[in-house]
Specification:
Structural class of chain A: alpha+beta
Oligomer: homotrimer
Largest interface: A-B, 27 and 23 residues
Distance between the termini of chain A: 16 Å
Number of strands of chain A: 17
Number of helices of chain A: 7
Strand order of the largest sheet of chain A: 11-17-16-15-14-13-12
Number of domains of chain A: 2
CATH architecture of the largest domain in chain A: Alpha-Beta Complex
Order of helices and strands of chain A: EHEEEEEEEEEEHHHEEHEEEEHH
Largest sheet of chain A: 7 strands, antiparallel
CATH topology of the largest domain in chain A: Naphthalene 1,2-dioxygenase Alpha Subunit, Chain A, domain 1
Chain lengths: 349, 349, 349
């Protein structure tokens, strides 16, 4: 159950680059893809299935922008049509699927659904990614759970108190009420904590920003879901009484937690997580330290989600509760269902 | 195919204790349970499924006798009803299953079936467990085989000659006829070997008892099955000609091999094995040495049972032989089938 | 989909010998077999299923030519009939399957199908195996792929250029046309390369044969398929212009690549590979060096075939191309299908 006529993050630019002349094999929305750089250096994605004998093209290598099958040397073009094969006329070879692909914001994005509807104008905009005033660090986890369990997880940060008791959790999260609203296809869940002590991460950020880390602060968490399954979370603290999220720049410090959740199959997904921050963007050591800390924290969620998935798979008929704290996930799932219904009725995209 | 309205060993008291404030997750008769100590320190078992979002409660921790879910902090009571959850009224939350649990004889016992029928008076009695005149040592194996294959194994000790040729097997076992009888729901298979040399284990026990280890002895093995799947085996030697099993206390030495076989699924089980002995009960080193030896021996059965299970799963239609030596297992299975039929016809328990 | 009324290689003589008094358990054409040496030292194969309680006989040991079950000591004869069991009359025990087995050419061969049709006269003849003028070295791989994918692989050596680019591949293979013909149940695919430089392996062989390794040569590859799934490949080089394959013995050097492909299940097989050479047969170091090199090369094919199998299993309905270079595999599959149809219509064998 995933929207197909949309852009998903397939991998990072760096991940593809690190493979040199090898393509990357990855399954996105049940589509096995071989991702590579075409003749013009632009990213491309084709079905990971050689039309000759079914070998995975991702075992081959890229030769001047064509993907050469590692079995018998067939050369596949970015459009899914065979370019050449030793000793063969290839004109009659059946085409394989080609998927629209775009490199943007340091990621490779693919469109797994109807290719006629693929439209670069529908790429989401993230002004804080690939921007000189911001630094970004992140990573990738492969999670054996329905991607919607990760949406639930991120659209309800109450779990921080329990899952992340040792790092970013603090009792005030539980105590502050959260508020959820839907704006078109977007869902926003937010929570404000007033007049509290900053937790260690934010004390560090305050210090970096030239603020007194011991000062009383107002803290915010604003989780923003947008289809198909991107979640950006505005997080930060401001000196108490200056307007919180809306405080002047010199009274606050903040970041965006970036979550690109890409379905692999019905019960597994790729989770690209990271943080974009606009304080000390030039400090690459800090980027790496934050990245490692965030990696540890997000890793704590993995076991929970995977065992939750096992439980749900055992009892698929069982109804779950939908409480106030779950409203973010519940509303996000409704948006997905609505868009899925549109997609199936042809009104989609 | 297992009896459900009955008491099964779920774990040892020590295993639960070692977890501190963590619960124990274990599947018994296809029921996923989270086992923990309730507010009064009494053992409790509830379904391993948080009614909020299906997270496994066994990932949480115990707070003042309530089981706190590790995801969003819901607190579950021993009766399967939610006690509290941060920021929520929980009165309307659906209950989850709670299973009757008792701590006795150093084990935690659970009743996986109809809870209205759960009855502590139906707990079996084992006078040699948790008794100051007896010492007990044991262990736990997880076996990928139908629990009835383990019953077959233990109700026919002929296999000792082949599977355990290097330890407790001796040719006389094969040569002495075995005799099986049924007494109500109990099955007894016994074998007596007259005028033989004691094997190494019993020579050691004779020495501990002040008997001449080289003396000619009468040896016995009396396997006692009781439902659902407990097997106690009286084993011992007496100086020849003094009545064997019935010999006066100063002419013999003996133990009870304890086997609690608890189905996990249709094709796997938990096997708590051990030995209770009434010689030198204060010698904890001896307890540990016996435990290790027994662990090695029972481990030899594991591969056989697991590969036997694979063979049987491949050919479920195939008829097996039921020979005289198999009578113990065959009769035990008949008792189980009879009780199962009663259970299904509502006359059970 | 495999022919059953035929001889397959089950294992090597050495593999069985190395087990001492233990039998070898192996599945051939979905038949689980226990292979051992009978009372006369002749190889035997019986179903790996004890008629008593279904234990795998391959966990037992061989006692004077009978296979003793490791569970309760039943002794199984080479004909699938129980010979004895402690304390039992065995006459009425059901027989298990026995499979015709022959030791020849350093291999154990079994006939998995209708035993009435098992006929040693139908054993194929390989004059270069177990022959004093030839040396043989080889190995065994267990491949998670339909055995016919291995036939395709070996009946089309075009893949050498891509899969084995670092060892035996050379561009001329791609450039030389291949030619396929069918002779009854046999399929021959051959390729001749004229006036080329010998690749490293053949330079070594030329040196061993007393030929100038830098000389221009004619090279040949003649792949010979015979049912059910044996492939022998004549490979060699001759000094250019002396007739190639037909050149006089002192002008050429050659070997036979030996491939015995034995189905295990529908999607896995045992692959016995090796090389028989008639130059320097006494040089055992050379045999071992060639064996290791060949093992490395054939290992390169394994991943490709296994992932190709995964792709095909995902899309079983998908049509593959059948190009000129595929003719060897395509024709071999047709022979198999024809023989299978005969087998199913009772005209088989």
């Amino acid at each position: 159950m995933f929207i197909r006529n949309t852009w998903y993050v397939a991998c990072t630019r760096d991940e593809l680059h690190a493979l040199g002349d090898k393509p990357l094999g990855r399954t996105i929305c049940n589509e096995k893809m071989a991702i590579f750089k075409g003749p013009d250096g632009k990213v491309a994605a084709v079905e990971d299935f050689c039309p000759h004998r079914g070998a995975p093209l991702s075992l081959g290598r890229v030769c001047q922008g064509h993907l050469q099958c590692g079995y018998h040397g067939l050369q596949m073009g970015v459009d899914g049509r065979t370019v050449s094969m030793p000793g063969q006329r290839v004109r009659g070879f059946p085409a394989i699927k080609a998927f629209a692909a775009i490199e943007r914001y340091g990621f490779v994005w693919v469109w797994p659904g109807d290719q006629d509807q693929a439209n670069p104008d529908r790429m989401p905009v993230f002004e804080f990614l690939d921007h000189p005033d911001w630094a970004y660090g992140g990573g990738l986890y492969h999670v054996q759970a329905d991607y919607r369990l990760m949406i639930d997880n991120l659209m309800d940060l109450t779990h921080e108190t329990y899952v992340h008791a040792g790092s970013i959790g603090q009792p005030e999260i539980d105590e502050a009420p959260c508020e959820t609203r839907v704006e078109g296809d977007r869902v926003i869940t937010q929570r404000f904590m007033q007049g509290i002590q900053a937790p260690p991460f934010w004390q560090m950020a305050m210090r970096a920003q030239g603020l007194d880390p011991q000062a009383t602060v107002d803290r915010w968490q604003i989780c923003r879901f947008s289809p198909p399954s991107h979640i950006m979370i505005d997080v930060g603290v401001a000196l108490a009484g200056h307007g919180g999220f809306d405080a002047p720049a010199d009274k606050k410090t903040y970041s965006v937690v970036v979550d690109f959740i890409t379905p692999e199959t019905e019960s597994s997904h790729w989770y690209h997580w990271g943080m974009a921050r606009n304080f000390k963007p030039e400090d690459t050591d800090l980027t790496e330290r934050i990245r490692q800390g965030q990696g540890r924290i997000f890793n704590e969620d993995m076991q929970m989600l995977q065992l939750q998935q096992e439980n749900l798979s055992r009892s698929p008929e069982r109804k779950l509760l939908m409480l106030g704290i779950d409203a973010g996930g519940v509303q996000s799932r409704r948006v997905i269902e609505r868009l899925l219904a549109q997609e199936h009725h042809g009104a989609g995209a």
